[in-house]
Every structure is written in structure tokens, then in C-alpha cells.
Predict the structure.
Amino acid sequence: MRVFLVVTHGRGSLDLYSIRLSSYLQAPTLHTDAYQRVRERFHKPLFSPSTLKELHFIWKFAKTLDKLEGIPHLPNHHLGRIGLLLKKPFIITVHDLIRYFDAKGYGPLIHKPNLKDRLLLRSDYEGVKKAVKIIVPSQRTKLDVVKHLEVPEEKVEVIYHGIDEIFKPTYGWRPCEEPYILYVGSEHPRKNLATLFKAFSRVKQENPELKDLKLVKAGRAGGREAKFREETLRLTRDLGISEDVIILDWVPQSCLASLYTGAELFAFPSLYEGFGWPPLEAMACGCPVLSSNAACMPEVLGDAALYVDPWDVEGWKQALATMLTDEGLRRKLAYKGMERASRFTWRRAAEQTLALYKEVEEGLSSTLKCA
């Protein structure tokens, strides 16, 4: 029985994982919009036609996978609800436990899920526990899976994500003529933009030489569960920095590389990440990185970033001021960052994933022979 990768097509970063991996993975693939269907029905009422359609689709897709020859690799944990219905072995990738923590009331990291979502999220994580192997993108995520889902440690394999080759020093489009700090990502509570905005406000107030400095925020706000963009705009108004914050929505990768390259520094104050692509993309473009010291960030970024506690506004203010006024420090971090980012390639991720496939194939073959 050969393993095949389920490649999901959609607008989310979790879709990006399977699409990029499939480009380098020497294994069969099945292409689908399964995750997009799940994603667009998030936060719908339990008793609704939408939920009935979702449940029917989950059942139908599980039946399709069961009929296909081979072992499916489900590329994200929100397909665990499909894995739970499978009658055959499967592999699953768990990118993080963000929704699990929100369902347990530990957040909100994104938003407290409604009843329908809590039920389906529970089935996701029950499905994860049923998998023969679980791939995670960091040691931190492995610790979370083992601890919170009570999965045997030997069942979980760390395979770091890659970053796209388009991310390299690229000089072109700029969002403004003034120097700018850059943040890329959603506006979910876990992204902790409040700390960054407050620190930025203080830097502007206390350093007259930085009066022209802007803060550029790129990326979609983040779903319809809450008014994330409205809260972001309210925060900029309350802090008196509306004219100094440039909010961009989705930015194509070709422009994003230029955006990273042109920034004075990249700021990433996140409270929780399973891996965290943006700071590595910034590093690959030669942009120095200031990151929170939470979750997996020190593990992924190593000694190539400057770290601050995500709740320490004063610490962020001081770190921003130091980096903005110390060109030598920025050059040092930029150099170390490019070297660090070069370690994270999709080719390496694909090779390690293929090795895991072979391990699973051989293990199941031996089990069938013994039976």
C-alpha cells in the first residue's frame, strides 16, 4: 500500500503547505478543495442547511478515500473529521492546536467557537489521535500534541516546513516613501498586534528622529468570526497612530518579497504559532527580525532574531528603538537571518516526508504479512 498526499486547493496558508510539498514530493497525489469547503463553513449555526451539506461532504469524501488504493496523508488537522470516518490507516499533519485551545477556553487565540464548531473540532482531534503517524512542523507543536491530545510521542514526527524560493532580496515596490516597520499576518488576538502598536506609538513619541517612521501591516484580517479589522482600526485611533499605520490586505508573493526587503525590520509579536512562516520569509529577503519569545519562535528562528516577551510593551519599545538606530545590529541580524532561512526548504521537507511514507508503508506491510 503506497501513501498518497491529499493536496487541498484554497486561499488558506494550510492549503499552501500541501501545494508546495506536492511540488517536490515523489508520491501520488489527490487534488481537492476539501479544506476550502470546511473553512468557508466555519462559524455557521449547528442547525442549518450549511451544516447538513458539510456533514454530507465529510461522509462522502471519507467514502471516496476508502475506495482509493493506498494510504492517504491528510495535510491538515481540520481534515481529522474525515480521518475519523476512514476505515483504513492514514497519516495527518497537525500544524498547531490553536482551535483546540480556543475550544477549551484557553484563549481566545482566534475566537471562541460556537457549538457546531466545537463538535466538529472535537472530531478533528479524535481523528488526529486515530492516525498511524502525525507530522508536525516544530518540536513545540509536538509537545502540545503529546500533552494535550495524549498521543504517544513515538507517533509524532517533526518535519519543518519550507519557505518559497521567491523570497530573496528583491528591490521594487514600496508601500510608502518613508522608512517602515513591517508586520505580515492576520489580525487575530493571538497575533498580539496591540503590543506592537503600543510599542510603536511610544517609539514615535520618544524618538523625534523617527517622526517619519511608518508601520505597515499586510495580510487579510482573518475570517468572519469577529470584527478583526474593526478592532485593529479602533486600536490605531485610540493610540493616535492612524496616520502612521498603513494597512494592506492580501499582497501577492512577488510584491511581498519587495515589501520584506524594503522594511527597516520585521516585527512578529505573536503569542502562539505552530511554525510561523512570515519571520522566515523576512529573513530570506534580508530583513532583520524582532520576534516574541513565545511558542516555537526561538526554535524556528534560532539566534538569527532579537527576542522580547510578547506582553512586555516597554521591552518592545526599547528593542524597536535599538534596532532602528543601530545599523550594525540590523546588518548582523540580516546576515544571520538569510543563513537561517536557507535551512528551511520544501525539498528537504519533501525528502523527510517521503522517508516517513516509506516507514509507514513498510510497517503496515509487515503487519499484514504477520496477520
User: Anything to note?
Assistant: The longest strand covers residues 3-8.
